[in-house]
């Protein structure tokens, strides 16, 4: 897959009253053309700073970004403005013009780009059909729901026929059901038009539902990257594990500390593997967590089990699970 975005040694420092603050520390990542790529981290991780560096709205202190192999740092302001026509953004709070109706909101960037009023309106109505909102053409933002406002923002972002769509916490202000519809729309746009989508979020569910690859940020550092399936199945860093293991779930009273996490794919979910393991090993286990998730449109399940204190029995259980081709990893400090 061709790399449409390459981030090379990017650092960003800000100066404040208390001295220098490092928002990004030597970030390197590559995003494939036509990918839906997630960038996730908790508040203060540097996600929004990174997404603004991708189109040089925020100029990195060090390093550079390549868009389709063109070095943004070497571009003059006029060249950057031209490049940004192909890199659109949508935001958490929509950023619509409240005094203009839906059609005029979509026409606005087109008119600035030199479209005639007639051609701009024609294009705006085409875009409203794409986002399934043509019946709201003459409505004003105050008359729209949050999901409808975000659809208008997406239509406006598509007006310039971008190759890349940057989504900065685009679903954070929406309820769960509306979030699902916006994610489905973004997936449809990616599939039908081949637009590369970069999603900035703090919600792992968003990443798992729509993204093929993910980068995890923590306090300005890139701590883990890979396919969403790989990281869900076998997260390597404590930051990735914290995002995937549902935060601070704990059990109050427990004997023994040895816990494992197992991941079920569609193929492995038909066999009653836990029941069979208990029968085979003649010892019980404690289920601390059981969950099913949508990973890129496919069902994937996970469990965290507390194993018996007897080491021989615990090792036998782990070997049994591995023999059934399940992903198994030991989880430290879970209980």
TrEMBL record:
Organism per entry: Acetitomaculum ruminis DSM 5522
UniProt family annotation: Belongs to the ABC transporter superfamily.
GO MF terms, alphabetically ordered: ATP binding; ATP hydrolysis activity
Domain ABC transporter, residue spans: 5-244
Domain of life the protein comes from: Bacteria
Secretion signal, residue range per the UniProt entry: none
Cellular compartments per GO CC: plasma membrane
SUPFAM superfamilies, sorted: ACT-like, P-loop containing nucleoside triphosphate hydrolases
Coiled-coil residue spans: none
Key word Metal-binding present: no
Matching CDD domains: ABC_MetN_methionine_transporter
Keyword Protein transport: no
InterPro entries reported for this sequence: AAA+_ATPase, ABC_transporter-like_ATP-bd, ABC_transporter-like_CS, ACT-like_dom_sf, MetN_ABC, MetN_ABC_transporter-like, NIL_domain, P-loop_NTPase
Keyword line: Amino-acid transport, ATP-binding, Cell membrane, Membrane, Nucleotide-binding, Translocase, Transport
Name used for this protein in its record: D-methionine transport system ATP-binding protein
BP terms from Gene Ontology: amino acid transport
Upper classification of the organism: Bacteria, Bacillati, Bacillota, Clostridia, Lachnospirales
């Amino acid at each position: 897959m061709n790399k449409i975005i390459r981030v090379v040694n990017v650092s960003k420092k800000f100066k404040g009253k208390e001295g220098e603050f490092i928002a990004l520390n030597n970030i390197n990542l590559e995003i494939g053309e036509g990918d839906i790529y997630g960038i996730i981290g908790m508040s203060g991780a540097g996600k929004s700073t990174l997404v603004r560096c991708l189109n040089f709205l925020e100029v990195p202190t060090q390093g550079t970004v390549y868009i389709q192999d063109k070095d943004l740092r070497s571009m003059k302001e006029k060249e950057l403005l031209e490049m940004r026509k192909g890199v659109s953004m949508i935001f958490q709070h929509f950023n619509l013009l409240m005094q203009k109706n839906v059609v005029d909101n979509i026409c606005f960037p087109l008119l600035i780009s030199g479209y005639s009023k007639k051609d701009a309106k024609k294009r705006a109505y085409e875009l409203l059909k794409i986002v399934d909102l043509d019946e709201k053409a003459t409505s004003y933002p105050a008359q729209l729901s949050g999901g409808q406002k975000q659809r208008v923002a997406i239509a406006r972002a598509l007006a310039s026929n971008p190759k890349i769509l940057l989504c900065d916490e685009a679903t954070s202000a929406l309820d769960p059901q509306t979030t699902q519809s916006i994610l489905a729309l973004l997936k449809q746009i990616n599939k039908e038009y081949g637009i590369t989508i970069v999603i900035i979020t703090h919600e792992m569910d968003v990443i798992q539902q729509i993204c093929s690859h993910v980068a995890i940020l923590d306090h300005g550092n890139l701590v883990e990257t890979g396919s969403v399936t790989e990281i869900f199945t076998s997260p390597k860093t404590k930051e990735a594990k914290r995002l995937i293991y549902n935060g601070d779930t704990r059990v109050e009273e427990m004997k023994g500390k040895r816990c494992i996490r197992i991941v079920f794919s569609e193929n492995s979910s038909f066999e009653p593997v836990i029941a069979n393991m208990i029968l085979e090993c003649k010892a019980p286990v404690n289920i601390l967590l059981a969950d099913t998730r949508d990973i890129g449109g496919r069902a994937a399940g996970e469990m965290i089990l507390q194993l018996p204190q007897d080491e021989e029995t615990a090792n036998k259980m782990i070997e049994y699970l591995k023999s059934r081709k399940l992903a198994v990893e030991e989880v430290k400090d879970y209980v």
